[in-house]
Write a structure and sequence with these properties.
With about 350 residues, the chain is mainly beta. The chain has one helix at about 1-45, and strands at about 50-65, 75-90, 95-110, 115-130, 140-150, 155-160, 165-170, 175-190, 195-205, 235-250, 255-265, 280-290, 295-305, 325-340. It has a twelve-stranded antiparallel barrel. Strands 6-7 form a two-stranded antiparallel sheet.
Length: about 350
């Protein structure tokens, strides 16, 4: 009897040990599977890239030469370089878009030997942060910053004096420079259209070179004394509406336009030299055609109307308000570096 009881006890003990081992193996397998799943999920999360970046470098060279040409003409060489960089972040309801456009170009002409003339010069920086009002809404809360200026002095015309070219300088580096901070709402009905409404906009116009402060609307240090000089900055609180459109066709043709209207809350329409049209207008357009992998043709136009900018004819102290227009056509070598999500 004792032997039977011992045999049963040993059998129960063996069964318990075997079952415990099976349970341990099963638990270990489940734990390993869970760890592997978490590891794979972590890897997937690490692979998620919320940034989309691109940098386009461009270099354009144009040359014209005449030899015994009956109709006449001047030999010319133009060289232009540009950088168009963007960094866009999007995660959940938040987005942050940044863009920098830098351009510079010059012209050499045989009728002005020894002189290199600037024909393109631009610094434009933009940054916009947006937060959706809801997942399905087309409206965002927005805050934006932009900066617009130039690298080098600008000249209107040249005259030759004692064998040297003397230019009529009308601008300088950071003279003028426009800085804007805006807050409001933006409407984004689709991927290629965006409109920003900013009832709270702080605009700062800088003119570091004292020679041009009057022309760019700076206020006098002493209004009762016209010879007292002018401030180097002008603050304008106001409202802004900004529209962006970017349309691409088969990655070959691309059209971009940006229209900005700004109204200064402190604008005095009764002031001396005040413009009848109080809005500041900036309208940029760009049409590009990818001719080949590294060859692109572009047409750029810029339209500006600024109610505080005055144009003075030679020898005149009375200024005029005028619309400004610039057009630039180029065929350039381009190289783009970008990443995708």
């Amino acid at each position: 009897m004792k032997r039977v009881l011992v045999a049963l006890g040993l059998t129960l003990l063996y069964s318990t040990v075997v079952l415990a081992q099976d349970d341990a193996r099963k638990a270990a397998a489940e734990a390993a599977a869970a760890m592997y799943s978490e590891s794979e999920t972590g890897k997937q999360e690490q692979k998620t890239n919320y940034w989309k970046r691109s940098v386009e470098f461009s270099l354009g060279l144009n040359q014209t030469s005449f030899t015994n040409w009956a109709a006449g003409g001047n030999n010319t060489v133009t060289l232009g370089a540009g950088v168009d960089a963007s960094a866009k972040y999007a995660k959940g309801l938040s987005s942050w878009n940044n863009r920098a456009q830098l351009n510079y170009g010059f012209l050499w002409s045989s009728d002005k030997k020894g002189l290199i003339q600037k024909n393109n010069d631009r610094i434009k920086l933009e940054s916009n942060f947006a937060y959706k009002t809801s997942k399905t809404s087309k409206w965002n809360y927005s805050a934006s910053f932009d900066f617009l200026s130039q690298f080098a002095p600008g000249y209107k015309s040249y005259t030759e004096v004692d064998g040297k070219w003397v230019g009529n300088q009308v601008s300088a580096g950071l003279s003028p420079a426009n800085i804007n901070l805006a807050a409001g709402m933006e409407w984004v009905p689709n991927e290629w259209f965006k409109m920003e409404f900013s009832p709270i906009t702080a605009s700062l116009v800088l003119c570091l070179d004292s020679r041009f402060r009057k022309s760019y609307g700076m206020k006098p240090l002493d209004p009762s004394n016209p010879d007292s000089g002018y401030h180097n900055a002008l603050f304008q609180p106001g409202a802004r509406v900004k529209t962006d459109v970017a349309v691409s066709v088969n990655d070959v043709f691309k059209f971009e336009t940006q229209l900005t209207l700004f109204y200064d809350y402190t604008y005095d329409s009764k002031a001396e030299n005040a413009s009848k049209f109080p809005f500041k207008v900036n309208w940029d357009n760009k049409i590009s055609w990818q001719l080949a992998k590294y060859l692109k043709a572009s047409l750029n136009t810029w339209f500006i109307y600024d109610p505080i900018v005055l144009f003075h004819t030679d020898g005149s102290t009375v200024g005029e308000h005028k619309a400004q227009f610039k057009e630039f056509l180029s065929i350039s070598f381009t190289y783009t570096i970008s990443n995708s999500k």
